[in-house]
Amino acid sequence: MQPSEPQDMQALFARHGFVPSPACPERFLRAHRHLVYFILRAFESAPDTPAGLLAAVTEWHRRYDELADAQPREQVFEFNDGKRRLRLACQPGCNHCCTTPVSLIAPEAASIAAYLHTNLNPEQTAALAARIGEHRRARESDPHGPVMCPLNVDGNCIVYAVRPLNCRKWHSFDEPACRRGFLANDRTALIPRGAVRADASGLIWQSAVAAFSALGLTVRELELIPTLEIALHAEHIAARVLADEAVFAAAHRASPDA
User: Fold this and answer.
1) Residues 77, 195: contact at Cβ < 8 Å?
2) What is the Cα–Cα distance from 75 to 88, expressed in whole angstroms?
3) Helix/strand/coil for 71
4) C-alpha–C-alpha distance, residues 96 and 7, integer Å
5) What are the φ and ψ backbone dihedral angles of 242, each rounded to 5 degrees?
6) What digits encode the pLDDT tens for the residues 165-190?
7) Please, what's the b/e burial string for 10-37 (b: 16 or more CB within 10 A of its CB; e: otherwise)?
8) Distance (Å, rounded) from C-alpha 105 to C-alpha 220?
9) At 256, is the pLDDT very low, low, confident or very high (cuts 50, 70, 90)?
């Protein structure tokens, strides 16, 4: 039996002018509506404030984490040479995927900025700025090679609690395949991923885009590294994102057609 809709759902949608996308497949429409509802409801815990914006981002990410955590940690995958039962390989210190470019949207950037300003001391902030510079120079030298994310220190992400959805959604049931795919840049490496974890991320991403759009916010994708450079030096980022200022305009991800 499908869960009933919350009594205040329609009123909440009406306040923010949310209308489900007609492109959303019927089988996903209920889940889409519920996800948007929970994000908007979190925002209304402190409406029109930076705290409300950050609460909405936290709720968005929490919904994906709960879904991912509920999936089995062992799954059977079919390969050319037969079936194999594999165990989820991701664990602390495993950071092969942290060498690939990541995109995010401005509400996530505001959450990361708030976390950095709260949790890093001046020495740590300076060290992060230095790593960002090193990352930029390495990318300029080798645009397609593996370059470790400047947020990764000693194998661990220093903003793990507020990492973007595009980091959260990556997972693998084969660590050596990740090593080949990311570190050796082997484009033929097949990295087995659980279907629910992988496929649900698209629905959750689109639901968040719909929710933040209903709040009047720009949801154009940003490149993580230039976003971090801005986040380290700009002030009151959450308030500026909430006001839909173009604080991250310099970090807009280039269009595939550009």
Assistant:
1) no
2) 8
3) coil
4) 45
5) -60, -35
6) 999 999 999 999 999 999 888 877 88
7) eebbeeeebeeeeebeeebeebbbbbbb
8) 6
9) low
